[in-house]
Design goal:
Helix content: 40-55%
Largest sheet: 7 strands, parallel
Bound molecules: uridine-diphosphate-N-acetylglucosamine
Structural class: alpha/beta
Distance between the termini: 11 Å
Order of helices and strands: EHEHEHEHEHEHEHHEHHEHEHEHEHEHH
Number of helices: 16
Oligomer: single chain
Strand content: 15-25%
């Protein structure tokens, strides 16, 4: 069996690494070719992650880089098509919801190569989010849909997707987190940054709705106010860094850094007193780790992190950051159990289904 895995961004690497590992172990005689589109290309956004996750160097680098949505998507399609013609895979596996996911699913489907989508069926019901469009199209084009929560099946049914294409396997991002747990628990990253475990807020923000428009200056002001109550650690995504150049961001207690490697980031996440984010994956990682998460968005495609996890939707409203200290003081003492099948074995289930 010949399998191609297409990844392009930081969260793609995290979701795909354990799937490649499980399938290599299950089908050692097969061809397993990794294609990196190059959507993320900075050392700190790409190589560091692949190294820490133990992923072998990609077999093909498409080097598409940044651009408008149409440019980025079109470049992946143009450069991927000849690579798929050369690799002649029996299956193309795509994770997540980024532009590379959409482009790879569409290119493979047009070549009549079966597609498997990892993290299928998530919906925010907000079509202004580019990721929502990517998810809908990738799911429609995929032959095998790997789901990580039960509500994903309802979303897919509502879009007319047949039951026999769906497989509820669990969360491959949690597979990676569980596999790295011994290493990040002993990494001591908080201490190296001079903050005490349990005492600080960890912040990540990168979505266009928040960082590309007028909400960013108000968000920084609110973070500076939060930093007077507890230290705020903020590793800054390149997109956000670019937008912050025009904003006053030097405030006492606000610790800005470059993007971190995954082990350092997970170490900070596991030791945080609270997390403030607009990321999708971090809502899930905090739920698994039992860390209070506050999401600066109006909606989430991961409602299970609210209903069964530790996530609170603050809305797309920077002034809501001021509620965090009080919400922390009132939070329930008991940490919820992780959602079903977020158990570190999702990739093995995927490998068994693909092999059979
Ligand atoms: C992308 C995904 C988003 C995902 C995020 C994870 C889409 C539509 N968006 O957003 O769903 O949550 O990745 O991080 O696919 N840049 C660099 N170096 C890099 C990568 C990006 O400097 O290695 C800068 C460039 O200025 C670029 C901007 O960041 O224009 C945005 O990058 P892009 O890949 O378009 O989207 P992300 O915001 O990273």
């Amino acid at each position: 069996m010949r399998i191609v895995y297409v990844v392009g961004t930081r969260p793609n690497f995290v979701k795909t690494a354990p799937v490649v590992g499980a399938l290599r172990a299950r089908l050692p005689e097969g061809r397993h070719a990794l294609i990196h589109t190059g959507q993320h290309y900075d050392h700190l956004m790409s190589e560091v992650f692949l190294e820490e996750l133990g992923v072998p160097a990609p077999d093909h680098m498409l080097e598409v880089g940044s651009g408008s949505h149409a440019q980025q998507t079109a470049r992946v399609m143009e450069r991927l098509e000849p690579v798929l013609a050369e690799e002649r895979p029996d299956l193309v596996i795509v994770p997540g919801d980024v532009n590379s996911t959409l482009a790879a699913a569409l290119t493979a489907a047009k070549l009549q190569i079966p597609v498997a989508h990892v993290e299928s069926g998530l919906r925010s019901f907000d079509r202004t989010m580019p990721e929502e469009l990517n998810r809908i199209v990738a799911d429609q084009l995929s032959d095998h849909l790997f789901l990580h929560c039960e509500d994903a099946a309802q979303n897919l049914r509502a879009e007319g997707i047949a039951e026999d294409r769906m497989h509820f396997v669990g969360n491959t991002m949690i597979d990676t987190l569980a596999a790295l747990e011994d290493r990040f628990r002993t990494a001591g990253t908080a201490g190296r940054l001079g903050v005490a475990p349990g005492d600080y807020a960890l912040v990540t923000l990168h979505r266009p709705a928040l960082v590309d428009g007028p909400l960013l200056p108000e968000t920084i002001t609110q973070l500076a106010a939060l930093a007077r109550e507890m230290p705020v650690v903020f590793p800054v995504h390149p997109r956000t860094r670019k937008m912050m150049e025009a904003v006053e961001s030097e405030h006492p207690g606000l610790l800005l850094s470059e993007p971190l490697g995954y082990l350092d980031f997970l170490s900070l996440l596991a030791d945080a007193g609270a997390v403030l984010t607009d990321s999708g994956g971090i809502q899930e990682e905090t739920t698994y780790l039992g860390i209070p998460c506050f999401t600066l968005r109006d909606n989430t495609e991961r409602p299970i992190t609210v209903t069964e996890g530790t996530n609170t939707l603050l809305g797309l409203d920077p002034s809501a950051i001021a509620q965090i200290p009080k919400a922390l003081a009132q939070r329930p003492a008991k940490r919820p159990d992780p959602p079903p099948l977020w158990d570190g074995h999702a990739s093995e289930r995927i490998a068994n289904i693909v092999a059979s």
